[in-house]
Structure formats: structure tokens, C-alpha cells
Design a protein that fits this description.
74% of the residues lie in helices and 1% in strands. It is mainly alpha-helical and 326 residues long. The protein has one domain.
Length: 326
């Protein structure tokens, strides 16, 4: 039975080994033209290159994640209305909530896609590095010679790329570098989640179930990475830390330039747009819209105040009296 599952696992991981090793070895060969092929820095920079390629490939999913997160925030008032209306009927509540998600084009699981898709790649890199260090085992395009080189590569001639905090054998240098990378990975995970909550969530979405879920992730994910990170090789910690930094920068750009309506980021963008428009003597789209609404309201008030007074009809006696006066 174990052999069966091992065969299935190998069949699933083999394509990932080839994909990950193809990019990793490609960067290594390019860097080896002017760097030491066996040097730890060469392999670390190859891992950084692998990270950048993977994150670039995941940009469409990241955009989908941002849109889904934004929609989830904006529909929270409607979700709360459904909870008040159908709180007594869980089945009806689930049906109406899913209908709301469908009508608004929201996928509640889209926010997890980038991290879920990275996990198999993360695992493939972990096993490639771990097995290269322990058994000098080759995977994919990482042949035996490169696997041996990869497993024995060291930074500063004393800190192996395959070293971990737990298995440092008392070597302070390995423990210090691993601890710094674990802290960096944990801090960037926390700051990325906090950036999303503090800048790109409207005030009325901060008290709903979605906000509670985000708050839980804000504190749980860093703890998970901190606890698990002490067993990760330094090369794998480099991958995840660089990936988190990419996410922070990418998310900062999206939030700054395309924030969700009614959020602090949207207010900040409107202020920047107003300042730029004032320098150029122009008006922002928001200002033009405000003026249009104000003009329509003023026109409506003027129309109401200028209602015509219909002349009263005179009786026959009044008309006769008026003629005599003339």
C-alpha cells in the first residue's frame, strides 16, 4: 500500500520536478558564466530567479484574487442582510449567499489560489534541495553532478544552502541566517495581510464574517510559517521570503492605483488625483461627477420653485362687473 501511494506521489511530483529544475538550472547556467558554479550565492540567486518566474506566471491569478477580495468586501452589507433575513434557515441562507456570490461574480476561494498553487512548487523545491543534500539524488533536469553541487553549495563557505535551523548541529552561522529568514518570512506574511485589511477594506466590511476570517489569517498564517520555518532549508526560506516581498510590492501597486471604493486607499488616491489636477488646472473625474450631481439638484430645486400659478376662473357676475368698470 505504501509503495502504491509512493508511486502515485512520484507520478504527481515528477512533472513539477522537471518544471522547477528547468527554471532553476537555466538560471544557474546563465549565472555560472560570470559566477562560481558551485558557489552558494549562485544557487541562491538561481532560486530567486525561479521565484520571480513563478510569481510572474501567477500574475493573472493574483489579479483574480484581488478582484475576488474586493467583491467580497463590497458585498458584505448584503451578506449581513441575508443573515438577518434567513438566519433561522441555514439551508436557505447558504443558497441565497451562493446566489449572491454568483450574481456578483465573486469566488470566495479565489483569494487562496496563489498560495495553494505555490505549495506544490514549494514542496518540489524542498524535496529537491533536501534530497540533493542528503543523498545527492537527481530530479528532473537537475542531474547527479548538479544535484551534488546544489546539495553542497554554501554561502560564505560555511553556511550550506540546504542547512536548517533545527539541523544546524550547533553552527551559529546557520542558525542566525535561518532565523533571520524565518523572521523575514513571518513578518512579510503578516505585513502583506495587514496591508490588505488596513488599506483596502471599507469600514462597513470590517465587522462581518469575511473580516473575521481575514483577522484570523492575519495572526494564524505567520505563526504557522514561523513554527514550520525552522525545519525549512535556507534555500527554501529564500524562495518563500522573496515570494512574500513580491506579493507585498504587487499588492501595494494594485491597492495604490486601483483601490476598492470606500476604502482608505481610495480616499488617498482621490487626494493625490485632486492635487495633480490642481497643478494642471484640471478637475478629477470625481470632482466633475460631484459638480454634475450638484447641478442636477440645483436645477430640480429651481424647477420646483417656479411652478406656474393657474388663473382662477371668474363667474358670470364677476365678468359683468369687470366690464362695467371698464
Amino acid at each position: 500500500m505504501l509503495d502504491f501511494f509512493g508511486t502515485i506521489g512520484g507520478a504527481i511530483m515528477t512533472p513539477l520536478y522537471y518544471a522547477v529544475s528547468f527554471v532553476l538550472v537555466g538560471f544557474h547556467r546563465a549565472l555560472s558564466t560570470f559566477m562560481d558554479p558551485a558557489g552558494g550565492l549562485t544557487w541562491v540567486l538561481s532560486i530567486v530567479g525561479l521565484t520571480l518566474v513563478i510569481r510572474t506566471a501567477l500574475i493573472p491569478l493574483f489579479v483574480k484574487q484581488i478582484k475576488s477580495s474586493r467583491n467580497m468586501q463590497l458585498i458584505q452589507p448584503k451578506v449581513r442582510e441575508l443573515q438577518k433575513k434567513y438566519g433561522h434557515d441555514r439551508e436557505k441562507l447558504a443558497q441565497e449567499t451562493m446566489k449572491l456570490y454568483k450574481d456578483s461574480g465573486t469566488n470566495p476561494f479565489a483569494s487562496c489560489l496563489p498560495i495553494l498553487l505555490q505549495m506544490p512548487i514549494f514542496l518540489a523545491l524542498f524535496r529537491m534541495l533536501d534530497q540533493a543534500a542528503r543523498k545527492e539524488k537527481a530530479h528532473g533536469f537537475l542531474d547527479e553532478g548538479l544535484a551534488k553541487q546544489f546539495g553542497q553549495a554554501s554561502l560564505f563557505d560555511r553556511i550550506p544552502v540546504s542547512g536548517t535551523f533545527l539541523n544546524a548541529d550547533g553552527q551559529v552561522g546557520i542558525m542566525v541566517v535561518a532565523a533571520i529568514l524565518v523572521l523575514g518570512m513571518t513578518a512579510t506574511t503578516f505585513l502583506t495581510q495587514r496591508q490588505l485589511m488596513s488599506k483596502n477594506m471599507p469600514a462597513d466590511a470590517l465587522s462581518g464574517p469575511y473580516a473575521q476570517q481575514q483577522k484570523m489569517l492575519l495572526y494564524v498564517l505567520p505563526v504557522v510559517f514561523a513554527v514550520g520555518g525552522v525545519a525549512f532549508p535556507i534555500g527554501v526560506l529564500v524562495y518563500w521570503t522573496v515570494s512574500n516581498l513580491w506579493t507585498m510590492c504587487q499588492q501595494f501597486y494594485v491597492i495604490r492605483n486601483n483601490p476598492a471604493p470606500g476604502t482608505p486607499a481610495a480616499e488617498a488616491k482621490e487626494q493625490r488625483d485632486r492635487a495633480k489636477a490642481e497643478k494642471k488646472g484640471l478637475k478629477t473625474p470625481a470632482q466633475l461627477e460631484e459638480e454634475r450631481i450638484a447641478a442636477e439638484a440645483e436645477a430640480k430645486r429651481a424647477e420646483q420653485s417656479q411652478t406656474r400659478v393657474q388663473p382662477q376662473r371668474q363667474t358670470k357676475a364677476q365678468r359683468t362687473k369687470s366690464k362695467k368698470k371698464r
